[in-house]
Structure to design on (729 residues):
């Protein structure tokens, strides 16, 4: 019987089930979307995505996109996305640095260091993050002076409750050249590192790559920026009435959210790092020591490369948590996507379903991009086992 | 025995609803209120003078009083109302989803809200105007003195946009910091993050008494907007909207007609004015026309008082806010309040 044979083919059956599941999912989604939109029409609630092109009229005190209140709500959304990515990216870098340091400290044989690290980790891990954010925010605010009593750095930069005000160059061409120079230096450093590695493989001789790299990638860019800075005039912030005007301001909301996210996530990363390092067998460390490697090199060349495959997957979820946690910036008026889009724009337009769906989609996109990158990185740096 | 009781109750329910259904349009909201025995009223998170829960959890304020009047009119008991605190962002969803029967929480009537949110505004119980609270030592007299200032505001309120528009139209630069909650915006202002906090003048009078030292803060007298506020219902259920609208009118009419919580019994028995008699249910059977009992406004006024009594007790001279009546005075005394006739 052909029908029975058709059922007995496992491949056909699998495809059939998959197709059935897909159709079912689509039907359910379509049903809910249509149901929601029908009910909204009945209740007299506006729907659709046209609102994205309406004028926003919402002020955003901190943006690097050049957004103005006369722009559209789409531009407002973009500003929110950029601010979310900005604070998340900065916090991810610093959280990783602090996390690795604290994780290594936790494993130190020095009693004071390991206890300090343990206290830090337990303190941070057992406090709700919202509390942490508010603590940093009101802590930062109350520690700083009023604008009239600002801390003055050489008459060009000012720190007060309204933020850190730094001068901006009026002419940017010099900086574009400096940026090109820095990129060239980084390329040179990468080339040098490759050459040094190849030479070491060939002759066994070591080359002070890090020292050279420090000069190439650290000192020379500073010199290039200094030359560029000297060549232009500066827009120096000045006190006008209530506040400083001119230059660029780093708002306390950014600083507080950045500090809260990085110190908080660092506590979790430290534990991940500790677990990863402890998964490396003691024999590996003993062997490295027996070869006469210095303690620093044992960690850098033997322990960490073997710990990385264990560390990266859980650290990826910490990064994702951090990005999602940046939404708590809404509580302290940091203009990230939840504050400006799900807050201000939602109340201005009232289109809750569309706005929440868009916001969900954006977090999903950012999250998937980060995990894709981390998976790629992990695959690339996996130890070649022989 | 139980079953018998149930059948009897059901029978009573059906005959009752059949009798009333003869003249009245169906009102699912009113039916639900009568079935559950209380009104669900969407209040503010906490605004002294308007809607504020004290340390015993008792709600008080002008907007709260309105919901109490409504409960007295619909259920005969002003205490049969449950308050749900709502934030600026939540309020529409809470109303649209049917979680509350109405909002009575300092909500400004605007065109786009009326046109796109599926909500109706049922009258005005407070004429609010937006202004700023500043530190006394900042020496600000007029709003334009706030040029270059930093201003804290609750995100998504009408105040956010009104302030941004006002300064932009005058080419003045200000920095506006949007907080999700009023309370966070106020504590940020208190901490010195902002030079000013902006909201309606009535709301600010309420907030000012919450500061450590209210005398260090001053409310500007200049008003940059008109923000009429009143109870909000969702679209549909016209009979419920009718009740919400006319209970508000009734409290204002009572003040205009001189009916107070003290003299309401005497007025009902002896008043020669037909409008007073109709308002209080002595003639005309006005309550029944909406599916309420005829003493609906009698109960509301007896238990909560007329608009003027409520105003003086919550935000006026009898309260900590000490707001003058101003625009919120009867039209006969130079204000804007006015009730259509009870005819």
């Amino acid at each position: 019987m052909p029908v029975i044979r058709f059922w007995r083919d496992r491949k056909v059956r699998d495809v059939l089930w998959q197709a059935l599941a897909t159709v079912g999912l689509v039907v359910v989604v379509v049903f809910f979307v249509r149901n929601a939109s029908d009910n909204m029409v009945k209740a007299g609630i506006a729907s659709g995505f046209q609102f994205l092109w309406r004028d926003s009229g919402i002020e955003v005190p901190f943006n690097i996109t050049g957004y103005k209140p006369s722009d559209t709500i789409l531009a407002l959304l973009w500003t929110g996305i950029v601010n979310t990515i900005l604070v998340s990216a900065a916090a991810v870098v610093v959280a990783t640095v602090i996390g690795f340091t604290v994780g290594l400290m936790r494993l130190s044989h020095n009693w004071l260091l390991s206890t300090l690290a343990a206290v830090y980790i337990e303190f941070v891990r057992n406090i709700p993050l919202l509390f942490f954010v508010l603590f940093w925010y009101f802590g930062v605010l109350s520690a700083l002076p009023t604008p009239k009593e600002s801390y003055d750095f050489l008459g060009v930069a000012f720190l007060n409750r309204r933020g850190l005000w730094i001068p901006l160059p009026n002419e940017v061409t010099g900086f574009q050249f400096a940026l090109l120079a820095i990129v060239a230096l980084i390329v040179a450093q990468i080339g040098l590192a490759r050459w040094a590695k190849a030479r070491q493989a060939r002759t066994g001789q070591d080359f002070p790559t890090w020292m050279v790299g420090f000069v190439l990638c650290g000192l020379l860019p500073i010199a290039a920026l200094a030359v560029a800075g000297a060549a232009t005039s500066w827009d120096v912030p000045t006190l006008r009435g209530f506040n400083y005007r001119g230059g660029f301001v780093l708002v306390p909301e950014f600083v507080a959210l950045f500090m809260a996210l990085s110190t908080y996530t660092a506590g979790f990363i430290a534990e991940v790092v500790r677990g990863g390092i402890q998964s490396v067998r003691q024999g590996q460390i003993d062997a490295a020591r027996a070869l006469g490697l210095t303690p620093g090199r044992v960690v850098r060349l033997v322990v960490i490369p073997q710990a990385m495959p264990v560390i990266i997957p859980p650290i990826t979820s910490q990064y994702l948590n951090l990005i999602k946690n940046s939404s708590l910036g809404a509580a302290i008026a940091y203009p990230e996507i939840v504050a400006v889009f799900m807050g201000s724009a939602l109340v201005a337009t009232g289109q809750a379903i569309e706005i929440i769906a868009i916001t969900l989609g954006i977090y999903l996109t950012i999250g998937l991009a980060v995990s894709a990158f981390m998976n790629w990185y992990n695959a690339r740096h996996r130890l070649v086992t022989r | 025995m139980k079953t018998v009781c149930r059948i009897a109750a059901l029978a009573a329910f059906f005959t009752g609803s059949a009798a009333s259904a003869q003249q009245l349009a169906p009102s699912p909201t009113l039916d639900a209120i009568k079935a559950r025995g209380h009104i669900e009223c969407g209040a503010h998170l906490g605004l002294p003078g308007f809607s504020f829960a004290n340390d015993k959890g008792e709600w008080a304020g002008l907007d709260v009083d309105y919901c109490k009047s409504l409960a007295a009119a619909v259920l005969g008991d002003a205490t049969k109302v449950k308050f749900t605190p709502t934030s600026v962002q939540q309020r529409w969803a809470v109303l649209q989803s049917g979680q509350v029967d109405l909002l009575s929480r300092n909500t400004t009537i605007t065109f786009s809200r009326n046109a796109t949110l599926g909500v109706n505004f049922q009258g005005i119980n407070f004429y609010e105007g937006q202004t700023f609270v500043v530190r006394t030592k900042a020496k600000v007299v007029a709003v334009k003195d706030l040029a270059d200032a930093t201003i804290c505001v609750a995100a998504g309120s009408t105040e956010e946009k009104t302030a941004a528009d006002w300064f932009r139209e005058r080419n003045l630069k200000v920095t506006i910091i949007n907080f999700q909650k009023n309370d966070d915006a106020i504590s940020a202002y208190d901490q010195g993050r902002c030079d000013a906090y902006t909201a309606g003048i009535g709301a600010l009078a309420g907030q000012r008494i919450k500061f450590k030292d209210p005398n260090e803060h001053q409310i500007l007298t200049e008003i940059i907007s008109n923000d009429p506020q009143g109870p909000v219902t969702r679209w549909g259920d016209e009979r419920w909207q009718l009740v919400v609208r006319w209970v508000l009118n009734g409290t204002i009419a009572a003040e205009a007609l001189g009916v107070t919580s003290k003299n309401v019994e005497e007025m009902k028995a002896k008043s020669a004015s037909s409008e007073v008699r109709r308002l209080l249910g002595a003639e005309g059977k006005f309550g029944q026309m909406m599916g309420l009992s005829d003493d609906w406004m009698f109960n509301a006024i007896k238990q909560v008082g007329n608009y003027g009594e409520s105003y003086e007790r919550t935000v006026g001279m009898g309260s900590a806010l000490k707001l003058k009546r101003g625009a919120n005075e009867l039209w006969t005394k130079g204000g804007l309040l006015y009730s259509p006739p009870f005819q």
The longest helix of chain B spans residues 2-21.
